[in-house]
């Protein structure tokens, strides 16, 4: 089973604002990877949407401005992702790693998944920490470099190299 984990491709990061107000962690570059992600969606057997989702008083807001509050449109999938007709799982996460505080690893074990592909944002935050947590669990990780986007071009490129050399991530 080809499992594609789509990390944080949600309105809170991809739109400057929603009907609930301004998105304070808007990533202007992130929309450009949607066509590439759609190609990977087509080839996948199973999609895992890993969406940031916080309470109003989340500890993360000591580090970052308020974003992706649970009851707002910010946690919904971004426009343009074409996942019609695909099987999917929704994982709501509160930290950088898709594994932290979620039942993602329970689901992987239950379905005997030993390999995942990670796409989405940000290369240098959630993709990196999720890849690390997957590798610690002996799960093989592939990251297609055109289907992830970083905070800056420099850190995106550095982290791709870092994941490859330190974690053995398959960068394609
Ligand atoms: Zn967050």
Write up what this structure looks like.
With 172 residues, the protein is α/β, with parallel strands linked by helices. It has one domain: Rossmann fold. It has 5 helices and 9 strands; from the N terminus they run βαββαββαβαββαβ. Strands 1, 4, 5, 6, 7, 8 and 9 form a 7-stranded parallel beta sheet that branches. A two-stranded antiparallel ribbon has the order 2-3. Strand 6, helix 4 and strand 7 form a beta-alpha-beta unit. The mean pLDDT is 97. Zinc ion (ZN) binds next to loops.
Give a short synopsis of this structure.
The chain is of the alpha/beta class. The chain has 5 helices and 9 strands.
Can you give keywords for this protein?
172 residues; alpha/beta; Rossmann fold; seven-stranded parallel β-sheet; two-stranded antiparallel ribbon; binds zinc ion
| Helix and strand run | EHEEHEEHEHEEHE
Kindly state the number of beta strands. Answer: 9
Shape: globular
**How much of the residues is beta strand, in percent?**
15-25%
CATH structural class = Alpha Beta
The helix content, as a percent range, equals: 25-40%
CATH superfamily: Isochorismatase-like
Bound molecules: zinc ion
> Major β-sheet, in short?
7 strands, parallel
The structural domain count equals 1
- How many helix segments? 5
C-alpha termini separation? 19 Å
Q: Mean pLDDT score, rounded?
A: 97
CATH topology: Rossmann fold
Secondary-structure class? alpha/beta
CATH architectural type: 3-Layer(aba) Sandwich
Low-confidence segments, given as residue ranges, are none
Gyration radius, to the nearest Å?
Answer: 15 Å
